[in-house]
Amino acid sequence: xxxxxxxxxxxxxxxxxxxxxxxxxxxxxxxxxxxxxxxxxxxxxxxxxxxxxxxxxxxxxxxxxxxxxxxxxxxxxxxxxxxxxxxxxxxxxxxxxxxxxxxxxxxxxxxxxxxxxxxxxxxxxxxxxxxxxxxxxxxxxxxxxxxxxxxxxxxxxxxxxxxxxxxxxxxxxxxxxxxxxxxxxxxxxxxxxxxxxxxxxxxxxxxxxxxxxxxxxxxxxxxxxxxxxxxxxxxxxxxxxxxxxxxxxxxxxxxxxxxxxxxxxxxxxxxxxxxxxxxxxxxxxxxxxxxxxxxxxxxxxxxxxxxxxxxxxxxxxxxxxxxxxxxxxxxxxxxxxxxxxxxxxxxxxxxxxxxxxxxxxxxxx
Length: 365
Known about the structure:
single chain, 365 residues, mainly alpha, 15 helices, 72% helix, Peptidoglycan/LPS O-acetylase OafA/YrhL, contains acyltransferase and SGNH-hydrolase domains, acyltransferase activity, transferring groups other than amino-acyl groups, hydrolase
């Protein structure tokens, strides 16, 4: 099969980035406003934008891996292309954080140990287990994806698709159990690598479903739509009934349900016709543009929030939020076109040679 480029998923990436920016804005600021405090109660859901990123990434990465596993340069092409996309901006931002951040905000300089932890993508461990660490905390999700990338290509290469389905089931159950164990020990299960592999593997399940010729709108559109609505209803009931109650299994169940909602949502989007109103909205230029630079907006937005909060606040939360979004977009746009694009062009040296991907237009951020 020739891999289709889903323009609507660029918009989904943009939506996820906006969700996270809004969540962090309300988590890191404080305004004396009734509407602000009302929004504070709603915006924590934006935290799940990271889960949406995981499901989406699991889908986009897995569909490439499934279709290139016969390539002689399967591993080298994948890891080199991923490195060119992720590492330059990641390490550039670490330099900014550890050198310029202390100067701008008059903070103490981080220790070499902290720098090594973030440089080697091990930050999910101290963040989860409350070990003292100084660094850009929101980079935990980048660590999760890197850990998944180390494991998943190997499994896809050596296992049959039937065994991959079994692996996905094991990751689903394993992540759920891991979350219960961590919650029971008093740790937040949201930030650990192995407790997020279910989201990424559900994205991989969507990629497997896409490979099935029977996965068509006429066959699956209605069942997935009904299942999605049912899961949303169950999730809402769980949140309402158990709001404020610390029950470890329920905490783990909530995260699983959110992952399933995004898995079903993305599966539904690839079945909907392009002229569908939802897809037309997601394919609109503003969301597509925001999705294209979403990696940069995710990396830079925390710094922008802190600068706006500490140095140029207007005392009007809505105006400050708009400033944060605009500046995050501007910085990410400049970063993409002046810095990242230089490395992205090098990906052309490691093109996929398989017949399934030779003519396909694919973007994975």
